Amino acid sequence: MDLHGLLLIDKTAGITSYDVIRRLKRILPGAKIGHTGTLDPFATGLLVVLVGEATKLSIFLSELDKEYLATAKLGEETDTQDCTGRVVRSQPGPWPSEADVRAALASFEGRILQKVPSFSAAKFKGKPFYEMARRGEEVPEREREVEIHRAELVAYEPPTLKMRVVCGKGVYVRALAADLGARLGTVAHLAELRRVRWGGFNVEHATSADALGDPASVLRHGVAFDEILSFLPRVDLDEPALVSLRSGLAVKLSQKHAIVPARNKNEQTTRMRVCDSDGNLSVVAEAEAAEGSEPGVFSGEILLRPLKILHPS
Known about the structure:
alpha+beta, 6-stranded mixed β-sheet, globular
């Protein structure tokens, strides 16, 4: 990987996500570096870090599903809904049965309304909720619709339970832990959190944040720029068509253009990665299929409209 690509970092507990970014900026001076989503200091697991021109792809990666392993502790409510907060209410057993816990977790699957935690980065009139909460100010109640694809019990040793959560963007796992406690007739908070997957990227392939060394060792564990969006279908264009698309013009595809399916097929996508004749990622485009076609079914005449124009070289 050159200085345009993606790094998978396994964040350790006790440091912030930005601590990792600062460390990488010292190792790769002058490189533009960002990430797709933070982890709280107490949490561990996968940070998806973008370098150089790849930082422009964050908007497409942010929509991918995420998978967490989380431990909730029943019987204790904290003001932050996690292990870093102050215990504000205790409710000793008896504890719910394993069957009740499994049923309660399953009840959160699907599209749900979730209350935004008071200690969160959400803002009200430009002020982060967590700053207002720390000052003792009243934090407005706000709900957002989120989607939880799977919430399942991994282990249960009362008063703690370990769960696997697969979800879309915007889910607060600590809010889920607190809501789970309420649904079980008790209180709860999030004791541990580990992010193990982001889309097709897995923490098993990540480099420990504690092991970040010289530039060569860091870049050796990267994902090449042209492979980052492999979850999108791909089409290669000749130079005239590519110039038009990169100039902001729509380009019409015909049957002669071979479309390479996405690595992790998603029938609902209407986006496509557009490469030059050498296979270099050049544009991310919106594909407008023929009228009446299903999203993601690219057949017949297709109109490409540029969404993001890239300059990796």
